[in-house]
Amino acid sequence: MKLLHFSIIRFTICLIIGIILSKTLSISVFYSFFITVCFTALTVFLYFIFKKKNNYLYIFGITCYLTFIAFGLFISTSNEDLNKTNHFSNYTSRDTASTTITFRVRELLKPNAFSKRYYVDILKLNNNTVIGKALLNVKKDSVQTQLPIDAIYTTALPLVDVKKPLNPDQFSYKDYLEKQQVHYQLYADHTNLLQLQNKTHTLFGYAAKLRNHINSKLNPYQYTNDQLSIINALILGQRQNITKEVYDNYTNAGAIHILAVSGLHVGIILLILNLVFKPIERLKNGKFYKTLILVILLWTYALIAGGSASIIRATTMFSIVAIGINLKRPTNIYNTLAVSVFILLLIKPNFLFDVGFQLSYAAVIAIVSFQPILEKLWTPKYKIVTLLWQTLTVTVSAQFGIIPISLYYFHQFPSLFWLSNLIVIPFLSIILGLGLLVITLALFGLPKTLLSDAFGMVINWMNSFFGWISSQEDFLIIHIPFTVAQVIVSYIFIFCLYALYHNKNYRWLQLTLISVLALQLSYTIVQFNSKSNQFIVFHKSRNTLLGKKHNNQLATFSTLKTAETNAIIRSYAVKNALQTMPSKPITNLYKLNNKHLLVVDSLAVFNLKGITVDYVVLTQSPKLNLTRLIDSLKPKVIIADGNNYRSYVNRWEATCLKQKLPFYHTGQTGAYIINY
Fold it and tell me: Is 195 in a helix, a strand, or coil?
């Protein structure tokens, strides 16, 4: 296709391949650099050899692509903080009992039920100047205030690894943090932290102070907490204070992108700024100065809004768009997207694995590809109908790009997404413009006005509307199993469909039909893989949770009344395409083909006659003589779940060690899975 005729697009694809290879191949920075230098030298050499020999030019092209793949490999490995000699992890193993850590608060995160959380930059370990990010968890306290951005603290608390999930197919916060270059965390309360004097400030610190100043100026307008949290998310890019209920309403309505300052917001702000500064074009070299002002203001806004991944990529893309539009350079939207991707991945290769990055570019590519096709299906007579039709076609087009990724990560599909976007998106530019105006008036100290009240009413209306959409549960399709293979095959099908529309030939018809068959085959494979039999002892603190997987059904046995709706069970069932059965009370004996599993609970009953026990699960802290149990039943494995006192688990582990019998504690090794 003509799309691949653009060199920057092909080079960007090669760069992406190199970054992906760096995550699958264990190659050091030195070897990746050596490979890159070799391919670069070979490419330059072949250029001078074949530049006048067109018949062999394809050899130069191949080496050129391999060079960009190697370059992607190198920038990805060199960008990893753990590969740097001055990363703090290289000093943590030295005398950890007396480690003093000095860090700077970098970013405020959304708190959890127990802690306020921050990203921090580690500055010193004892007297060693180091680099690296860590996660700081500060225990919630009624008198504790929020740690200011850029503040420097010292503490003697230990750095600990971020743990992997203990149950199969759970969301891995460890993997997520690793993509943010965070591999360690600190647990503290306000008494463990000593603030140091700090006269140096970063741009992030100044941006945080400006956001705090804006919020203080908005206080006289008497906005509710829900209103203020949406204003901060919508305009200032801060979603930390949004309640779970409101956040879930926007998510289930398919409108969560409205709360994430990204391409949509930055594009609207660019249009507003473009109109405001249009008179500058009348000056000599006015277009140049206007473009410079637009780019500076866009990046200033990106910094004020927190400098998140979504904001940075959107600002990069629209900075290129602003330069192209105002300097009248001939641009192609695919070229623009490829340039922005290329630049972003050069700066931070891990952006590639960010869900927002993937969704954002998938949506934009789908919109510019499919929206013109859908728009031609109908030509309304009236302007207002035309606006609504264009909004609907943009919304539907975006789904071609984001549905496969959304199904893989979130396993749900809000079928009323079109209504959410059709009602709100046409007015979003007005809402953003009104919000920026209200904030400007607040900064000038103007008192509460009809305008500020109207903006609060609009926010209330948005919250109520998305709450109503979210309540239409029959239109929210949830718990959809979707694999990586299905994501890839889905995009192949969408690409073939797009190519078939433009080319309308037998070749693309064949490829489209083959992609349909491949999609059906992927579903068949998922169903086939789900028919294996397993018994799982899940880790659940203070509760017993067992699962028996037979064919494509999952039976649960638990002390919980509705264990089938528990997040642990639901996640496992969705990822494995299983149908959950109503939970049942725990029984003492389970037959797994020709094997038996005995559950010993608080009653400590284990007298069995004529039955060979292969597995023993200890739960509810039974008071028993484990040595006597082992001598009596002669099991092959002892398993302790998360519903036991720690002192009991330690004692059982010591007994099994003496008896030379395998012992597993789900709190350490994770859920125990028996295939039968």
Answer: strand
Contacts of 401 (CB under 8 A, 6+ apart): 359, 362, 363, 364, 365, 366, 367, 494
* pLDDT at position 329: 59
Produce one character per residue of 527-539: b if its CB has 16 or more CB atoms within 10 Å, e if not: eeebeeebbbbbb
Q: Give bridge partners of residue 664 from the DSSP assignment.
A: 639
- Half-sphere exposure (Cβ direction) of 63: Cα atoms closer than 13 Å: 18
Residues 123, 129 contacting (CB under 8 angstroms) = yes
Q: Tell me the β-bridge partners of 128.
A: 125
| Angle between helical axes of 417-443 and 263-276 (0-180°, round to 10) | 50
Mean pLDDT within 211-235? 91
Rounded Cα distance, 624 and 86, in Å: 51
Q: In 475-599, which ranges are continuous DSSP H helix?
A: 484-503, 506-529, 567-575
Pairing between β-strand 615-618 and β-strand 595-600 as defined by DSSP bridges: parallel
Kindly state the tokens that stand for 349.
């290769």
Using the CB atoms, write b or e for 93-119: b if 16+ within 10 Å.
Answer: eeeeeebebbbbbbbbeebeeebbbbb
Q: Which of 657, 638, 655, 621 is nearest to 541 (CA)?
A: 621
**In the prediction, which pLDDT does 14 show?**
94
pLDDT tier, 331 (very low <50, low <70, confident <90, very high otherwise): low
Residues 6+ apart with CB under 8 A from 458: 431, 434
Q: How far apart are CA 586 and CA 501, in angstroms?
A: 57
Interior angle at CA 189, CA 185 and CA 191, nearest 5: 130
Decide: 342 and 11 in contact? Cβ < 8 Å: yes
CA separation for the pair 476, 468 (Å, rounded): 12
Which SS3 state, helix, strand or coil, does residue 554 take? strand
